[in-house]
Specification:
CATH topology: TIM Barrel
Order of helices and strands: EHEHEHEHEHEHEHEHH
CATH class: Alpha Beta
Shape: globular
Distance between the termini: 12 Å
Number of strands: 8
Number of helices: 9
Strand content: 15-25%
Radius of gyration: 16 Å
Strand order of the largest sheet: 1-8-7-6-5-4-3-2
Length: 219
């Protein structure tokens, strides 16, 4: 049975208590911290930038799983690397050369991820799968937390998992968007091994983060 990793999204955390919220996630069994970076341009929302990531870096040993929803992305990759990102995930639509941006991330000693929006086809990333560490399947249209899961992405997860197996590749399949106790089983069965969850982890069971992470890991 494959190990399921949980990457809680701090977009759903109490931003006035971020350091203590991250400590709760670490103590609750999170495998990494998912950081959504939005620019108000590529997606219709603004969140945080490198200074906040840098300020939080000393508060946890967990990897920072940084999802860049910014355009153009290439010139900012080093800023997020220097701030303490461990995984840097970008969207193909935000760079003039996806392979150059992937190589830039790798050259900085970080893990490289590529994110696919619900309508973005696997073919966009397929020829780079040997070079990257992670594919992030968006199961909502990016921009805001708390959205409902789009079930139409399940076949995409299955297809990506099939390609991974057929080509004997080693990248992670991460899914982000509306993940809860009800739909996580189908996502895992489709082939995902990293679940991003915000609302469910921070709000369910009266905010019992440890319990919510344990439930997601045991489904």
């Amino acid at each position: 049975m494959k190990k399921i990793q949980i990457s809680p999204s701090i977009l759903s955390a109490d931003f006035s208590q971020l350091s203590s919220e991250i400590k709760k996630l670490e103590n609750g069994g999170a495998d990494m911290i998912h950081v959504d970076v939005m620019d108000g341009h590529f997606v219709p929302n603004l969140t945080l930038g490198p200074p906040i990531i840098k300020a939080l870096r000393s508060h946890t040993k967990l990897p920072f799983d940084v999802h860049l929803m910014i355009s153009p992305v290439h010139k900012y990759i080093k800023n997020f690397s220097d701030a303490g990102a461990d995984i840097i995930t970008i969207h193909p639509e935000t760079t003039d050369s996806l392979i150059d941006s992937i190589n830039h991330i790798k050259d900085l000693g970080k893990k490289a991820g590529v994110s696919l929006n619900p309508k973005t086809e696997i073919s966009v990333v397929e020829k780079y799968l040997e070079k990257i560490n992670l594919v992030l399947i968006m199961s909502v249209n990016p921009g805001f937390g708390g959205q409902k899961f789009i079930p139409n992405v399940i076949p995409k997860i299955k297809e990506l998992s099939r390609i991974k197996k057929d080509k004997n590749l080693n990248f992670d399949i991460e899914v982000d968007g509306g993940i809860n106790f009800e739909n996580s089983k189908s996502v895992i069965e489709a082939g995902a091994n990293i679940l991003v969850s915000g609302t469910t982890i921070f709000k369910e069971n009266s905010g019992d983060i440890k319990k919510n992470i344990e439930i997601l890991k045991s489904i």
